[in-house]
What we know:
CATH superfamily of the largest domain: inorganic pyrophosphatase (n-terminal core)
Strand content: 15-25%
CATH architecture of the largest domain: Alpha-Beta Complex
Order of helices and strands: HEHEEEEEHHHHHEEHHEEHEEH
Bound molecules: manganese (II) ion
Number of strands: 12
Helix content: 25-40%
Radius of gyration: 21 Å
CATH class of the largest domain: Alpha Beta
Number of helices: 11
Low-confidence stretches: none
Distance between the termini: 48 Å
Mean pLDDT: 94
Amino acid sequence: MTMITSSLPAEALHHAAALLQQRRRPLLISHPRPDGDTIGCALALRLALLQMGKIPSLACVHPIPENIAYLPGAETYVSDVPDDADIDLVIAVDMSDLSRTGGIYKDSWRGTLPLLVIDHHATNDAFGDVNLVDPDAAATALPLAALIDALGLPLTGDMATCLLAAVLTDTRGLRTSNTTPEVLRFVGQLIEAGGDYAGVMENTLDSVPYRQMRGWAVALNRLQLDGELAWATFPLAEKIALGIEDHDDLDLGNLLSRVAEAKVMATFLEMRDGTVKVSLRSRPGYNVAWIAKALAGGGHHQAAGCSVTGDLDAAQARVLPLAREELAKRLQKSHAMPD
Length: 339
Ligand SMILES: [Mn+2]
């Protein structure tokens, strides 16, 4: 079956496929605080590589979240790889730069092991020897499916389920603005190939660990609204009481992004190292990327983040005025140009 996928240069696909055919022991790396896209894609590619008779391995510096750990092959992830590992190719999955391997990529590999990058971030700086990057794709699942197709491999039901987990999580259940007709056709093809759509919806999208939901209770209890600005703080003591590790952000940014009255939303998570992790969200027409950037973070117009040194009060004092500034900008614009 020829997959409907985004417009990738045929040459990049050809180079990536050739690299996979030449090599025998590829290492697939998923990014820290892994999501369904980085895990689902790595697992689908692992299955493809096994079909080719290769010996793939998987690594991610953080544990695989419970709601994606049921996917076939997730149990084979390791959290680190030695410098002298028996590998002959490194594949970075769903990450925009090398630091996103979380330290799994070793400096000594540079120049000796080829690096293949498969991604969809607009900010990807093409850090691989071969870069299969489609910034227009809603998820890395799309260029990855194109690669499996270019290898001439049949898409099995298990591979399709992994890719469904990838595309359904990155589009938050097909509700983001980049959920194009192409994405919907892609999902249809994955279901036709035997992918378990209902299972992914049930086990991944509609599955929140008890601890995380208790965390949401803490955050929602502390939710504040001032005009069109909504925010919540999460003290370290509460994290410790619930047994929440620092790598777990409880997906609070997406939770608060749904406050109906708000145009800009912020969450403040106190970390064990004396910093506060800030997640920013905004409605279309509002931009939080510049706020994160002003505080040495980054991201997109509608979803960005940064880390601020100090306690929760200090972090709020730095971030909230900037958020109000963004809201005021828009207010001035609408006064100038009434519609
Ligand atoms: Mn992604």
